[in-house]
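2024-03-11 09:14:02 DEBUG pipeline.ingest accepted 1 chain
2024-03-11 09:14:02 DEBUG pipeline.ingest length=358
2024-03-11 09:14:03 DEBUG pipeline.predict start
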Amino acid sequence: MGRIRHIDWMKGIAILFMVQVHTAAVVPPTGVDVGNHPLAFLAAALGGMAAPLFVTMSGWGVHSSARRKGREGKDWIAWMVPRVSILFLCQILVNSLFHENHGGRFDILTPGILTLFAVSAILMPVLSRIGTFPRAILMLLLILTPSVLGGHAGSDWSWSVRIHSDGVSEWFERLLINGTYPAIPWLSYTILGSLIADLKEDGLTTRRAFFVGLAFTFYTVLASIVQNEAWALTEGEAVLTFFPANSEFVIVSATFVILLHMILEKIENDALGSNVERILRRLESAGRLSLTIYVGHFALLGAFVAIYGGVSFTLEVSFVLTVIHMIAWVPISIIHERIAPNYSLEQVIRVMGQKLSR
């Protein structure tokens, strides 16, 4: 099956946003408040959309791959084992590269976003066979679950508590309900990606979902004003919170993911050869190498914090470093595909799958 360009664009945007938010966390400007400075607010907004978009596009990819062929028994094992094993190993590698003992933010066995991807791959043989309506209901239940979990999601936890686990049972708690990217509710984005894949010919349903989400977004803004509470914070007291991801955050961020998809799909269909399309096509290599870039950018950030950890930066320096590191992965990915297309984590998964299927 040929590549769908607007999907590669979305994947490219997602991984660049991930690089941006992690770099901004490593080189935070001193004395700048997110709510009072436009650049800081923009960085926070992009950061808030990075992971939802990244997980959604992963869901699109794994669902599309699972649906491409009917698989039984050995074929499913050949499809699943490479993905799950590589993702778990990459999560440990990322945690090692960005370990808290070396100025990073992770513990060696912390479940993270790659662990979430592995869980989605394990579940996809079942999810891919469920109809769109039951999947939409399951997505809604996952979105609403944080409101039921309450304190079990760790709403008042420090980062240190969230990334540590004492024993197997706590590790599974972090994986499922109270880690950095727990399956509940983050698997709702995986399902969203699968729905976007299946509803590509049903624009009316997609638009209806967007307008419902947009109405809810306006409601959250109004609630923020009426309650005199922050609209969105990474953690703390706000209408939308990222750690843990509350129901309001999931709905609002999913709405913007749907909006971005509608815009980019229209550009691909209607604006062939336009300046915007030519710019977006530069992101395709990054989209195809998103897993490789995810691991690679942590290697650079880990080396950076080992050398410059604890150094204060002005807003201008922080902004320049963040933008340079983010944009640099665009030409790096293009060059990589030209000179070493067979050397990537994505290719490792493909080759392992081919060997196991024999």
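2024-03-11 09:14:41 DEBUG pipeline.report The chain has a mean pLDDT of 91.
2024-03-11 09:14:41 DEBUG pipeline.predict end
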